[in-house]
TrEMBL record:
Organism annotation: Mucilaginibacter pallidiroseus
UniProt GO cellular component terms: plasma membrane
Keywords: Cell membrane, Membrane, NAD, Oxidoreductase, Quinone, Translocase, Transmembrane, Transmembrane helix, Ubiquinone
Role description: NDH-1 shuttles electrons from NADH, via FMN and iron-sulfur (Fe-S) centers, to quinones in the respiratory chain. The immediate electron acceptor for the enzyme in this species is believed to be ubiquinone. Couples the redox reaction to proton translocation (for every two electrons transferred, four hydrogen ions are translocated across the cytoplasmic membrane), and thus conserves the redox energy in a proton gradient. This subunit may bind ubiquinone.
Alphabetical list of InterPro entries matching this protein: NADH_UbQ_OxRdtase_su1/FPO, NADH_UbQ_OxRdtase_su1_CS
Name listed for the protein in its UniProt record: NADH-quinone oxidoreductase subunit H
Family stated for the protein in its record: Belongs to the complex I subunit 1 family.
Amino acid sequence: MELTDIAIKFGLIVIIFGISLLVAMYSTYAERKIAAFFQDRVGPNRAGPFGILQPLADGAKMFLKEEIIPANATSFLFIVGPSLAILTACIGSAVIPWGQDLVIGDKVIPLQVTDINVGILYIFGVVSLGVYGVMIGGWASNNKYSLLGAIRAASQNISYEISMGLSIIALLLVTGTLSLGEIAKQQHGWHWNVLYQPVGFILFLVCSFAETNRTPFDLPECETELVGGYHTEYSSMKLGFYLFAEYINMFISSAVMATLYWGGYNYPGMDWVAAHVGPVAAPLIGTAIFFAKIFLFIFFFMWVRWTIPRFRYDQLMDLGWKTLIPLAIANIVVTGIVITFFN
């Protein structure tokens, strides 16, 4: 690999990292504004015009607050927990194709950090590691509420990862590849996988709510029962890391769903657009449309939070083991039959 290629890759990594943090930061603002809209309130409106600087004010508050480590906590692991949560949240973006290859002169710039042939397995591996940040933080806090939140997160993660994996198996029968880049290319134009796997998409969407600990599956941090759940004892930027990790996970989950099921950067009429706007603008338009899909999913995450009440924990487990897993298995069987006899 040439030095310029390494510089391009490094630049792409920095840009994606910056966008992830920016989206996470302003997702907090969007969450509060959307909640205010649904509850007939104004929302944040003091810091800057329409409260647009509120995330910066919140970030400054997080940085300036006192760092507190409980006397009986395991200090090293207490710091490792949020660090691992934010790390695993950020590295998931490495295999996501953000757009078609950008052609500038004789240089082809791929808008994907790396297109490994097991991209979906990579995503699942990163998601599986993310729960360790929650478990370590909850255990190291030496607080019964934190520990209960960590145990809930672990059991919830195990339950819903099975359904999510089974939903992906049906998609793999259709696409024949584990590469996210190849899956995106196969959905050229309007040939989106959601048309062929609607049940798989719904299963993946529900499991994404559970994996990101979002309402109605936010049992690990259930305030009415567990004070603050696994981050009860956290303050300052360590608490900020946990909150940022949740919003980055929501962003990455939305990007993965848009890539796997909703065409990624593809859209109807993209060939006509490419023929008329050139090889530089066309990929950027596709990237803009990809981000529009991501933001629609993020809005949906927030809409559900302020609309649907939280599940009881037994309902959460029943849904995962008794409903979603049988549905996912049935979806695999039906998909296999259709591909075998009708394709």
